[in-house]
Amino acid sequence: MADRNDLLQTYTPNSDIAAGFNQNQIIWSRSGNDTLLGFQPLTEIPQPQIDVFIGDVALDDPALRQWSDTFILGDWNKPYYANGDPQILGLNDFAVVTDFNPALDTIQLNGTANNYQLVNTVVGEALVLQNSTGPDVVGFLLGDYSNSNLNLQSNYFKYQGFTPPPGPVLPQVQQLGSPGYELTTTTATDPLGNVYIAGGTTGSLGGENAGSRDALVVKYDSQGNTLWTKQFGTSDFDTIYGIDTDNQGNFYVAGITQGDLAGPKQAVVSDAFLANRTYATGTARSQFYSIYVLCQSGVPRGHC
Ligand SMILES: [Ca+2]
Ligand SMILES: [Ca+2]
Ligand SMILES: [Ca+2]
Asked: What's the 263 CA to ligand 2 centre distance in angstroms?
């Protein structure tokens, strides 16, 4: 099981890709139209894996607005939370969606509607996959849906089928990936028109993977040609969440590491890193989600 300090993973009040850092987390994406995703769903990891998704509940949003969140419970390649023991209906792995709103939210699933059943339980609707080994619970939608008549054919369930989506339609669009798990979280341009994307990978795209997820940066020129791919990290979790450039064509990244990236890890769960330094603002966890470069003290880069 995760360390107690690992249990709650919070994101920002804006729209986020809210992806778990470890299995068995509560992933709380707060306000904004968020995409919620458990920890490395394409990687076989020890059971149990029970991830709890909170899409909207936001203490910093007095209006208590409801946003359109997407809960990822599968892709074209495989259903998530379906490595279960058939003796217990696959209850050793499942997601708990605490605040699914069929009027606004979407649940993404592998396969088609015919592969699933909704089963009413005392806590809400169980989403059950008809797996080759028998029924396997992939998720619980907490709450009372008796008035909304949840229907597997409705468009709030978004099915990905079983085959890869077609490649990019536009020749200028490039696809990047490895057999592992890639997450691109941020982009930037520089004054020469080069484009940077950054995030993390469990594969080996810009060097050999150091373990778990590594930080990833790819630079393209203004024509879309790949100039380089850089990958760095520790044996633990490392991911970039923010990238920005300056007027000299340098780039700067910020993110999160759970290893000894630029020195011994200081916090219990994670340190924030900025360029080649790490920071810990508390004993439990530190996280940087964005970066903004000033051209001089207090002057935004676009106003130099
Ligand atoms: Ca949200
Ligand atoms: Ca399961
Ligand atoms: Ca790593």
From this structure: 39
